[in-house]
Amino acid sequence: MVQEELFIQALQKKETQEQAFKQLVSQYKERLYWHVRRIVLDHDDADDVLQNTFIKIFRNIHTFKGDSALYSWMYRIATNEALTFLNQKARKSGISNEELQDNLIKNLEADVYFEGEEIQLKLQKAISKLPEKQRLVFNMKYFEEMKYEDMSQILDTSVGALKASYHHAVKKLEDYLTEN
Protein backbone atom coordinates (compact mmCIF):
# COMPACT_ATOMS: atom_id res chain seq x y z
CA MET A 1 0.00 0.00 0.00
CA VAL A 2 2.93 2.32 0.73
CA GLN A 3 4.08 1.82 -2.85
CA GLU A 4 0.66 2.93 -4.18
CA GLU A 5 0.66 5.98 -1.90
CA LEU A 6 4.06 7.03 -3.26
CA PHE A 7 2.85 6.46 -6.82
CA ILE A 8 -0.24 8.59 -6.18
CA GLN A 9 1.94 11.34 -4.73
CA ALA A 10 4.08 11.22 -7.88
CA LEU A 11 0.91 11.48 -9.99
CA GLN A 12 -0.25 14.50 -8.01
CA LYS A 13 3.04 16.46 -8.02
CA LYS A 14 3.65 18.75 -10.99
CA GLU A 15 7.34 17.80 -11.23
CA THR A 16 6.73 14.04 -11.42
CA GLN A 17 3.21 13.91 -12.84
CA GLU A 18 4.05 13.41 -16.51
CA GLN A 19 6.44 10.50 -15.93
CA ALA A 20 4.15 8.87 -13.36
CA PHE A 21 1.17 9.23 -15.69
CA LYS A 22 3.06 7.52 -18.52
CA GLN A 23 3.75 4.67 -16.11
CA LEU A 24 0.08 4.57 -15.09
CA VAL A 25 -1.08 4.39 -18.71
CA SER A 26 1.46 1.68 -19.47
CA GLN A 27 0.40 -0.34 -16.43
CA TYR A 28 -3.39 -0.10 -16.85
CA LYS A 29 -4.03 0.55 -20.55
CA GLU A 30 -4.67 -3.05 -21.58
CA ARG A 31 -6.82 -3.98 -18.55
CA LEU A 32 -8.93 -0.85 -18.89
CA TYR A 33 -9.21 -1.31 -22.65
CA TRP A 34 -10.71 -4.79 -22.26
CA HIS A 35 -12.99 -3.62 -19.47
CA VAL A 36 -14.30 -0.82 -21.69
CA ARG A 37 -14.37 -3.03 -24.79
CA ARG A 38 -16.67 -5.52 -23.05
CA ILE A 39 -19.08 -2.67 -22.37
CA VAL A 40 -19.04 -0.83 -25.72
CA LEU A 41 -18.10 -3.91 -27.84
CA ASP A 42 -16.57 -1.89 -30.71
CA HIS A 43 -12.77 -1.55 -30.94
CA ASP A 44 -12.75 2.07 -32.17
CA ASP A 45 -15.35 3.10 -29.58
CA ALA A 46 -13.31 1.39 -26.87
CA ASP A 47 -10.21 3.33 -27.96
CA ASP A 48 -12.17 6.61 -27.81
CA VAL A 49 -13.64 5.83 -24.40
CA LEU A 50 -10.23 4.74 -23.10
CA GLN A 51 -8.67 7.98 -24.28
CA ASN A 52 -11.44 9.98 -22.57
CA THR A 53 -10.94 7.89 -19.44
CA PHE A 54 -7.24 8.68 -19.24
CA ILE A 55 -7.89 12.37 -19.90
CA LYS A 56 -10.41 12.41 -17.05
CA ILE A 57 -7.98 10.54 -14.77
CA PHE A 58 -5.19 13.00 -15.60
CA ARG A 59 -7.41 16.03 -15.02
CA ASN A 60 -8.82 14.70 -11.75
CA ILE A 61 -5.92 12.82 -10.15
CA HIS A 62 -5.41 15.72 -7.75
CA THR A 63 -8.90 15.05 -6.33
CA PHE A 64 -8.14 11.37 -5.64
CA LYS A 65 -8.15 10.99 -1.87
CA GLY A 66 -7.23 7.33 -1.56
CA ASP A 67 -10.58 6.20 -0.13
CA SER A 68 -10.37 3.25 -2.51
CA ALA A 69 -7.59 1.58 -4.45
CA LEU A 70 -6.33 3.65 -7.40
CA TYR A 71 -7.38 1.00 -9.90
CA SER A 72 -10.91 0.90 -8.41
CA TRP A 73 -11.17 4.65 -8.88
CA MET A 74 -9.93 4.36 -12.48
CA TYR A 75 -12.30 1.47 -13.23
CA ARG A 76 -15.20 3.54 -11.92
CA ILE A 77 -14.23 6.37 -14.27
CA ALA A 78 -13.83 3.94 -17.20
CA THR A 79 -17.17 2.29 -16.45
CA ASN A 80 -18.97 5.62 -16.22
CA GLU A 81 -17.32 6.88 -19.40
CA ALA A 82 -18.32 3.72 -21.28
CA LEU A 83 -21.94 3.84 -20.06
CA THR A 84 -22.20 7.57 -20.81
CA PHE A 85 -20.79 6.90 -24.29
CA LEU A 86 -23.41 4.19 -24.96
CA ASN A 87 -26.24 6.37 -23.68
CA GLN A 88 -25.12 9.28 -25.88
CA LYS A 89 -24.71 6.98 -28.89
CA ALA A 90 -28.24 5.60 -28.42
CA ARG A 91 -29.70 9.09 -27.93
CA LYS A 92 -27.91 10.48 -31.02
CA SER A 93 -29.20 7.56 -33.08
CA GLY A 94 -32.71 7.99 -31.70
CA ILE A 95 -32.89 4.39 -30.50
CA SER A 96 -33.19 2.63 -27.14
CA ASN A 97 -30.19 1.17 -25.33
CA GLU A 98 -31.55 -2.31 -26.09
CA GLU A 99 -31.66 -1.54 -29.82
CA LEU A 100 -28.14 -0.15 -29.58
CA GLN A 101 -26.95 -3.40 -27.95
CA ASP A 102 -28.52 -5.38 -30.80
CA ASN A 103 -26.76 -3.16 -33.36
CA LEU A 104 -23.44 -3.51 -31.54
CA ILE A 105 -23.71 -7.30 -31.63
CA LYS A 106 -24.46 -7.21 -35.36
CA ASN A 107 -21.41 -4.99 -35.86
CA LEU A 108 -19.30 -7.32 -33.72
CA GLU A 109 -19.93 -10.12 -36.21
CA ALA A 110 -18.28 -7.99 -38.92
CA ASP A 111 -15.55 -6.51 -36.64
CA VAL A 112 -12.07 -7.39 -37.93
CA TYR A 113 -10.74 -6.98 -34.37
CA PHE A 114 -13.11 -9.62 -32.99
CA GLU A 115 -11.17 -12.85 -33.00
CA GLY A 116 -13.82 -14.97 -31.35
CA GLU A 117 -15.29 -18.19 -32.57
CA GLU A 118 -18.99 -18.81 -33.01
CA ILE A 119 -19.46 -19.82 -29.36
CA GLN A 120 -17.82 -16.58 -28.17
CA LEU A 121 -20.10 -14.57 -30.43
CA LYS A 122 -23.08 -16.47 -29.05
CA LEU A 123 -21.92 -15.67 -25.50
CA GLN A 124 -21.55 -11.98 -26.40
CA LYS A 125 -25.08 -11.99 -27.83
CA ALA A 126 -26.37 -13.55 -24.62
CA ILE A 127 -24.47 -11.03 -22.47
CA SER A 128 -25.88 -8.15 -24.54
CA LYS A 129 -29.39 -9.26 -23.57
CA LEU A 130 -28.67 -8.82 -19.85
CA PRO A 131 -29.72 -5.68 -17.98
CA GLU A 132 -26.87 -3.17 -17.75
CA LYS A 133 -25.89 -3.88 -14.14
CA GLN A 134 -25.92 -7.65 -14.61
CA ARG A 135 -23.87 -7.24 -17.78
CA LEU A 136 -21.26 -5.17 -15.93
CA VAL A 137 -21.08 -7.56 -12.97
CA PHE A 138 -20.85 -10.63 -15.19
CA ASN A 139 -18.07 -9.14 -17.32
CA MET A 140 -16.07 -8.02 -14.30
CA LYS A 141 -16.43 -11.34 -12.47
CA TYR A 142 -16.21 -13.77 -15.40
CA PHE A 143 -13.70 -12.14 -17.73
CA GLU A 144 -11.64 -10.04 -15.32
CA GLU A 145 -11.94 -12.39 -12.32
CA MET A 146 -12.51 -9.35 -10.14
CA LYS A 147 -13.30 -9.77 -6.46
CA TYR A 148 -16.74 -8.70 -5.28
CA GLU A 149 -15.15 -6.28 -2.80
CA ASP A 150 -13.35 -4.50 -5.66
CA MET A 151 -16.51 -4.44 -7.78
CA SER A 152 -18.35 -3.00 -4.80
CA GLN A 153 -15.99 -0.01 -4.76
CA ILE A 154 -16.17 0.45 -8.51
CA LEU A 155 -19.93 0.13 -8.88
CA ASP A 156 -20.79 1.59 -5.47
CA THR A 157 -23.02 -1.38 -4.62
CA SER A 158 -23.03 -3.91 -1.78
CA VAL A 159 -21.26 -7.23 -2.15
CA GLY A 160 -24.55 -9.05 -1.54
CA ALA A 161 -26.27 -7.18 -4.37
CA LEU A 162 -23.35 -7.95 -6.69
CA LYS A 163 -23.46 -11.66 -5.86
CA ALA A 164 -27.20 -11.68 -6.56
CA SER A 165 -26.69 -9.82 -9.86
CA TYR A 166 -24.00 -12.29 -10.91
CA HIS A 167 -26.18 -15.26 -9.98
CA HIS A 168 -29.14 -13.86 -11.97
CA ALA A 169 -26.87 -13.06 -14.93
CA VAL A 170 -25.44 -16.59 -15.03
CA LYS A 171 -28.95 -18.09 -14.87
CA LYS A 172 -30.17 -15.86 -17.72
CA LEU A 173 -27.09 -16.69 -19.79
CA GLU A 174 -27.57 -20.41 -19.25
CA ASP A 175 -31.22 -20.10 -20.31
CA TYR A 176 -30.34 -18.05 -23.40
CA LEU A 177 -27.54 -20.38 -24.49
CA THR A 178 -29.72 -23.46 -23.95
CA GLU A 179 -32.58 -21.99 -26.00
CA ASN A 180 -30.42 -20.63 -28.84
Automatic annotation (TrEMBL):
GO terms for biological process: DNA-templated transcription initiation. Keywords: Sigma factor, Transcription, Transcription regulation. Residues 121-173 form the RNA polymerase sigma factor 70 region 4 type domain. It comes from the Bacteria. The keyword 4Fe-4S does not apply. SUPFAM superfamilies: Sigma2 domain of RNA polymerase sigma factors (SSF88946), Sigma3 and sigma4 domains of RNA polymerase sigma factors (SSF88659). Belongs to the sigma-70 factor family. ECF subfamily. This is RNA polymerase sigma-70 factor, ECF subfamily. Residues 24-91 form the RNA polymerase sigma-70 region domain. It holds the Pfam family Sigma70_r4_2. It comes from Pustulibacterium marinum. The keyword Thylakoid does not apply. InterPro entries: RNA_pol_sigma-70-like, RNA_pol_sigma-70_dom, RNA_pol_sigma70_r2, RNA_pol_sigma70_r4_t2, RNA_pol_sigma_r2, RNA_pol_sigma_r3/r4-like, WH-like_DNA-bd_sf. PANTHER family: RNA POLYMERASE ECF-TYPE SIGMA FACTO, RNA POLYMERASE SIGMA FACTOR.
